[in-house]
Each structure stands twice: as C-alpha cells, then as structure tokens.
Specification:
Blueprint lengths: L21 E3 L46 E5 L2 E7 L4 E4 L3 H7 L6 E2 L9 H6 L4 H5 L2 E2 L8 H6 L4 E5 L5 H11 L2 E4 L6 H12 L2 H17 L9 E7 L2 E5 L4 H9 L14 E4 L11 E7 L4 H4 L8 H4 L3 E3 L2 H6 L3 H15 L1
Parallel strand pairs: 4-5, 4-7, 5-6, 7-8, 9-12, 12-13
Antiparallel strand pairs: 1-3, 2-3, 9-10, 10-11
Helix pairs in contact: 6-7, 7-8, 8-12
C-alpha cells in the first residue's frame, strides 16, 4: 500500500527516557460494540464540537506509582501482571508505535500497515534514535502479525488493540508469548490509550505531563478573526472520506476550538465515506487533505474540486496521511496542531 508522504513538521519536545521491562499475562474480556455512522447536517459556529476522553477508560490501569513493579494492569481484555520494568516491547496497532516513542521507549517490533515500519513523521520527530528505529522489526501487518516473528523477538510486553479484527484470538495467541495489554486502539481513544500504555511501562506521570502540555498549547493556539471552518478530507484508494471530531485530527481541531462544517459534525464514528457527487459537502474556509493509493490529482482533478471555496482561496493544504488520518497517537496530534495552527495564522 503506497501512501503520499511529505516532510514532517518540527514537533514540540517529547519525553526522552527509555524504560526497561519484563512481564506475564492474564485473562480476556469482550470489546465494546462499534457504533454506526450518522451524518450531521446543521452548520456550526466557533468552538469545539466535542472532545475525546482524556482520563483512563473506566476500569483500566493499575493505580500503581510510576516505576513500581510488579504491577497489575487492568485493560480492554482483562488484567496483566507486569513483573518488572520492560526492555523488549512489541506494538500491534496503528498509533501504539507513536505512543511508546513519545514515552521514550523504542520497541523491538511493530506491526506496520504502510510501506514503512516507522512512518516518516515519527522518523523525523525521533531522529536522535535513528539507529534504534532502523532496527525495529516489521511484523507484517496489524490484522494478524506473524506469531513466529513476534516469538523470535523475545518480547516481555506486547501492546495490541482491542479493536483489532478477531482481537480475542489475537490476545490469546500473544498472551502465550508474553505479557499482553490491550488498549482500545481507536482514534476516539488516543488519549486514554496513551495513559494505559504509559501505565504498562510504569510512566504514567510522563503521559499526564505530555497531555497537560498539549492541552495548554491547543488552548494557546491563536485563531484568526472570523472563526474559519476547517474540513478534513482523504481519498483512500479512490474512496472519498471526511473526518469528524471523533477522529485524531478532528479531536485536535476540537481542542483548539476550531469550527467545522456542519457535514462533519458527526461524533459516533471517526470518518464517513462520501460519493464524488458529494464533494461540495467537504467545502470550508480551509481544507486539509491527503491521498492514499494514487496521485493527488485523483482528488484535485475531481469534478467540482476547482470550484470549492477553499480551493479558489488557495486554502486547500495537502498533508501527510499518517499523522492526520492513519496513526492516532500523541506525536501525530502534535503534527496536526502545528500544521493547522501555522496555516490558519
């Protein structure tokens, strides 16, 4: 799968402490039922449409102080005892590589859906760890990574998504290899997932400090007069998608207090698919867009694109798909915050 990528923006500092770990694992539970899409239609004014949850998900976490092991971490598939600070972490979900790097840990393996094991925006943000990042093993897909490849890495902690396809089976398999903690793994849960990952690593305070700084910076991001609206749009292998406030990028806009077009006010799903004839519904004062599986002109050459208000005003900005639309993680949120705030000034 080929992704259009551009140079990553500079990012606000991340925690640079690598932790060490060892573990063993526990029982499973069922995942939440996904919600169905719905379309918002009324126009919106300034201010956030919604925000994603910020604290721990109910019933999750260990309650233990940082760097205290053993610790029993309650998570989305049960509870896991982590006996010592981990040293060999494997991540199996979009956004989890982002989360562990932001917390100062370079994993030994990652299940990557894209062309690169480490997306460009993370390689740029963590260039000081370039040698370690280059050694991260690609586990060949987040849907069903190679069990043998995971085993060969001798992990002492595996982080996975409870939202993954056949997650119960994946959790059972991974738990046979090493201590396994399941986060929700959705755009809506990215802040909760950061806290749960940090708890498993014994670094909860680092995650809380990161979130406090991020929220301070989103509140401080200056908005131009007139409360311009912002549209989030992606063409994925020929399919047109818009992103609402429950997406990673949409949640950043909500935290910034940026207004959205009424067609992107839906909150029960991260994105919705539109037909090409609905392209006019994506218009706003600004459009931030990405294209996957093709060239940008497959979107910008669509009938009606050139007549969109944002396009005629030269306010349609092509962005990296990974941080905006694929990887719901904290450093991705920083990329969105930096690019949107700098564009709207």
């Amino acid at each position: 799968m080929t992704t259009t990528r551009r140079s990553a923006l500079s990012l606000v500092g991340t925690v640079a402490v690598t932790t060490v770990l060892t573990a063993c694992s526990g029982s499973g539970s069922s995942s939440p039922t996904p919600t169905s899409p719905a379309t918002g239609s009324s126009p919106t004014s300034g201010g956030p449409l919604s925000s994603v949850p910020t604290g721990f998900a109910p019933g999750t976490g260990s309650g233990a102080e940082d760097d205290v092991f053993p610790r029993v971490v309650n998570h989305l598939r049960g509870s896991t005892t982590i006996t010592a600070a981990p040293t060999r972490v494997v991540v199996i979900a979009p956004g989890l590589l982002d989360a562990v790097l932001t917390l100062g840990t370079v994993p030994v393996g990652a299940a990557a859906d894209g062309a690169e094991t480490v997306p460009e925006y993370l390689a740029s943000a963590f260039d000081a760890q370039a040698d370690q990042l280059g050694a991260v093993t690609n586990l060949a897909g987040t849907i069903r990574p190679s069990l043998q490849a995971v085993t060969d890495l001798r992990p002492d902690l595996i982080l996975m998504s409870a939202d993954a396809q056949d997650a119960n089976s994946l959790y059972r398999e991974m738990s046979e290899v090493a201590a396994t903690v399941a986060v929700q793994g959705t755009d809506r849960s990215w802040k909760q997932d950061l806290l749960l990952v940090a708890d498993a690593l014994g670094r909860t305070q680092s995650a809380q400090t990161w979130l406090e700084t991020y929220h301070t910076d989103t509140r401080a991001a200056s908005q131009p007069p007139g409360s311009p609206t912002v549209s989030l749009l992606s063409l994925v292998n020929g399919h047109l998608h818009v992103f609402g406030p429950a997406s990673l990028a949409g949640s950043v806009l909500a935290d910034m207090g940026v207004a959205r077009p009424g067609s992107q006010a839906f909150t029960d799903t991260a994105s919705q698919e539109l037909t090409p004839t609905d392209l006019g519904q994506t218009d706003a004062d600004w459009i931030f867009y990405a294209v996957r599986g093709g060239r940008a002109n497959e979107l910008t050459g669509m009938q009606g694109w050139s007549s969109l208000g944002a396009v005629t005003a030269d306010r349609a900005v092509q962005v990296q798909e990974d941080p905006f639309f694929l990887n719901p993680g904290p450093t991705a949120a920083r990329v969105v915050l930096d690019q949107v705030s700098s564009s709207l000034r």
